[in-house]
Amino acid sequence: MENVGKVGLFGAAGAIGQSIAHALGATGRDYRVIGRSRGSLEAAFGQDPRAEIVTWNPDDPASVVAAAQGLQTAIYLVGVPYNQFETHPPLMEKTLAGLRAAGVERLILIGTVYPYGRARSQPVTENHPREPHTFKGQMRLAQENLVLDAHGHHGLSTLVLRLPDFYGPGVERSFVNGVFESAARGTRAQMVGPIDVPHEFVFVPDVGPVVETLTRTPEAYGRWLHLAGAGTITQREIAAKAYALAGREPRLMVAGKPMLRVLGLFNPIMREMVEMNYLMSEPLILDDSALQALIGPIRKTSYDEGIRLAFAAAQDAAKVAA
């Protein structure tokens, strides 16, 4: 491993970005957070003297170059609305052009399991075919191919770190976050089923230290790697544990694929969830032995502890709201 220069987080304000920023700060490293909205960046990072806050407009090439200037490593976490996945590849192209122009040496894309399509074997290693049968998977595949094809050109090394679904304290974009909020408030949790299938989640605070390590592990680049969760759990088990912490019996309303189709008539985001519902009914479990062989054992928070922490955060938020 080596000492490295400044890291920039593109699309930093989300949960994964905050986890990576925390890990960088904890190891004494300065970092840059880059996003469209200064307000959300100030809210997330304004208290950290190690954070440099920069806004960008990815549609303006000069803005991309300015945001990347002076960075050694860029970490790409830019999200798009669930019903606008066709914007992923062009956004990546513009960002890559800016990184090259600014002389950035390394790029890590935080990726998903979408490009694999359906799991053909379990657990899924990095050798699994990337043959997505969904539109979102195809857009994510095009995005990561742009990143992988850029490796070794113009002084840039690239890496895709593939994550499963995630959860954690206050992680609003986790689809199980509503379970913790509902358990804390004593209301009925709305869930997307089926909820009795083993599923894998990574605990968000566990992600940051892994990414921080990868920014100073040159031999990791030129491929994709997996970061797996702490084994598998069902959504029903998560709900049971969360409601037990509240001293309540679980109250659940489960929307399966037919219900998602109906809800999609009125809600474009729900409509977009239909094609990805296979990930709820057909497990896709990642194998991260390649990553562990590279950087050593990875600290993984147990589901019991992660659920306790996520519930506690929801309980605190419910008290503030009350």
From TrEMBL:
Residues 10-214 form the NAD-dependent epimerase/dehydratase domain. One of its GO terms (cellular component) is cytoplasm. It holds the Pfam family Epimerase. SUPFAM superfamilies: NAD(P)-binding Rossmann-fold domains (SSF51735). Signal peptide: none annotated. It comes from the Bacteria. GO terms for molecular function: aldehyde dehydrogenase (NAD+) activity. InterPro entries: Epimerase_deHydtase, NAD(P)-bd_dom_sf, NAD(P)-dependent_oxidoreduct. PANTHER family: NAD(P)-BINDING DOMAIN-CONTAINING PROTEIN-RELATED, PROTEIN YEEZ. This is Nucleoside-diphosphate-sugar epimerase. It comes from Paraburkholderia phenazinium. The lineage of its organism: Bacteria, Pseudomonadati, Pseudomonadota, Betaproteobacteria, Burkholderiales.
